[in-house]
């Protein structure tokens, strides 16, 4: 039977990358593809103790239906941490759900939505279901260019979606002056900013830049996540929004899953209520900083001339640019044959993909395997550059 | 700042009922309004033991990102229980999420969607966000009337949404012959059936009727839930769909929240893997059957002539019809002043609401308070009938 499905569902197609990356689950594959945090950072013992407290305290309440807005003590924890009114805080089923809710509340078919170049693939997917018209905002190695936000480019835009901290996929952090310029421009243009910040706490040096939210709470929807600082398998995120939008997001949330499990919210709260994050996050920063240096050292040792990459100050990703003309998607198949995987950059672009880019994730791979995998990639890229060189001359 | 929001978000308005029912959280209010299962039925000790096993087994995996489709052993458990291929099973964040995903995949603005008269409010809300055109299917005291499904009524319909077992709000169970007739008609019309079944296991006598799914697996999307047989605070449901629709639902799910927490899925699986449901569900049936009889006895004692209600064979709800001309919404305010609450029937209708109807939930209220609350409602309704009588004569 061929059932009639929605227009938005018709455009959902199986991703070619996903098919290729399925093989990376084989243990012999050195995968720089996943966006997974390191399980070594999960505070297992503390969470187990927290579960015991939840069961000792009021298990019936933890297992019953609960308020759509979220578990009040957890909302208060977030409100205090971000210095906002608790009435602006909504707990979500991972920050991916916040993307879905924001899309539901803000996007009509054809609505212009501004995104960074490149941007987070999961956001592009979540928004796509609501059929916006993506508008790519120019960036350079430091991220988004605020001066590019003209009245013409932003006309009718429902919002600008930005990841100012250690962006997925590029690892870039937006400098302070650009944040200030961005917020000022947005305010002048009446442009809503959606700030996605799953990696903000993961600065290796511990230095944090002020959030867009802190600069203009009434002009920003802020999305946070416990996935990178606690554990992603709990699916706990939150969204901080101006009151009138918070109210709409709550209504959309109620229709979407009633509420995030009260059980996991209480566990998270019991885990972090007494200052765990202050002790725990520095250990993640240290591990990820070390892993990043391993990867950067390996890249320096093995990448041929013509390959460029950045040196992130935090987060989980390095962005690599091959010489123009090379296609990281075509090369992925060869890499996977040699048991190394990465994510090609093209799908992260809402328009005009740069096919010579790719993303490397480094936090879950051992130093030995980083070295080994980067050596293989270096060799592969060198061969590709050499093979392309005569063509380039001929052209 | 007045941000431009989506058309679907504009139609989201605060519910008048919700506002009235907020006061029912006061402990002195006898509430027949909630749709909450009884916390006395939550298998707390078994779940606590299950959590210990999850932590002892592989906590890192339980706390890591996981497959969108769900935790494989839990999917296999569902597949075996419903005798379907595991490839058709998707675990959802409560069955409310299944409604959202089905809407995402099936509904375009203006798509006809058939619903029972009345139908589950949460489904109407979830579907509404995708702007269908609801078509109400006639029902009687036994539920949906299959012969009403003509080619004309069902023309272009994306699906028919039905709750055959102890429907929310009416408590009705669709008889076997109607199920057979419904499935046959739907097949003939090429009409997809969406079968929502959160209460199917809650037959007081333990008797179960075959699901629509079992009668035509390729023509039915089946939604199940652990909320009423385990605990709703875990937010665990599932959807069984024909392969091509399963695939689309998974893609929509990935964009919506990546996956349901692996942590809660593993806990549920560890709780039920060794036959807990077979021991546990009969205790829920017994409790709910007893509670239903208390409520029916009280209704018989206290309701004035002209008030009708049904005697459900399972589930959590009784449906009450006041004499024509009375408005249960207007009466709710008076009831709440007397510290009793229920849910008016009107919002459960997609069109032409019958304002003289209301829903009573009885599983979380003690027998003494059921008696007391029903006595107050009986008195209130008697006064309303008496007050309306002269008008009726005058009219």
UniProtKB/TrEMBL annotation, chains A, B:
The name on file for this protein is: 2-aminoadipate aminotransferase
Q: Which GO terms describe its molecular function?
A: transaminase activity
Keywords for the protein's UniProt record, in alphabetical order: Aminotransferase, Pyridoxal phosphate, Transferase
Name the Pfam families for this protein: Aminotran_1_2
Keyword Transferase appears in the UniProt entry: yes
- Which cofactors? pyridoxal 5'-phosphate
Query: What positions does the domain Aminotransferase class I/classII large occupy?
Result: 50-375
Signal sequence segment:
none
């Amino acid at each position: 039977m061929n059932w009639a499905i929605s227009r938005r569902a018709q455009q959902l197609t199986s991703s070619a990358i996903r098919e290729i990356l399925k093989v990376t689950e084989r243990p012999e594959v050195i995968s720089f593809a996943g966006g997974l945090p390191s399980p070594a950072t999960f505070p297992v013992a503390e969470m187990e103790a927290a579960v015991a407290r939840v069961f000792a305290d009021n298990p019936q309440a933890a297992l019953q239906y609960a308020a759509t807005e979220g578990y009040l003590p957890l909302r208060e924890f977030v409100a205090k941490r971000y210095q906002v009114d608790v009435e602006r805080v909504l707990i979500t089923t991972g920050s991916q759900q916040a993307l879905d809710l924001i899309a539901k509340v803000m996007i009509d078919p054809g609505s212009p939505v501004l995104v960074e170049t490149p941007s987070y693939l999961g956001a592009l997917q979540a928004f796509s279901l609501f059929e916006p018209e993506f508008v790519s905002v120019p960036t350079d190695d430091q991220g988004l260019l605020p001066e590019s936000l003209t009245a013409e480019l932003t006309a009718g835009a429902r919002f600008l979606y930005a990841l100012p901290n250690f962006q997925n996929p590029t690892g870039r952090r937006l400098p302070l002056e650009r944040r200030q310029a961005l917020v000022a421009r947005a305010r002048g243009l009446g442009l809503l900013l959606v700030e996605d910040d799953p990696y903000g706490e993961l600065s290796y040096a511990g230095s944090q830049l002020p959030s867009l939210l802190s600069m203009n709470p009434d002009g920003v929807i802020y999305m946070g996540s416990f996935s990178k600082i606690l554990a992603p398998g709990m699916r706990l995120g939150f969204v901080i929004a101006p009151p009138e939008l918070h109210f709409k997001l709550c209504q959309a949330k109620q229709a979407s899953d009633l509420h995030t499990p009260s059980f996991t919210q209480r566990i998270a709260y019991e885990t972090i209520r007494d200052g765990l994050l202050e002790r725990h996050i520095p250990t993640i920063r240290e591990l990820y900083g070390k892993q990043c240096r391993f990867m950067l050292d390996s890249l320096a040792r093995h990448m041929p001339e013509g390959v460029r990459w950045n040196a992130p100050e935090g987060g989980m990703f390095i962005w690599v640019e091959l010489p123009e003309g090379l296609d990281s998607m075509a090369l992925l198949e060869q890499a996977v044959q040699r048991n190394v995987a990465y994510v090609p950059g093209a799908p992260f672009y809402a328009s005009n993909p740069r096919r010579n880019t790719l993303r490397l994730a480094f936090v879950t791979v051992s130093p030995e395997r980083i070295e080994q995998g980067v050596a293989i990639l270096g060799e592969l890229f060198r061969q590709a550059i050499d093979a392309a060189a005569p063509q380039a001359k001929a052209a």
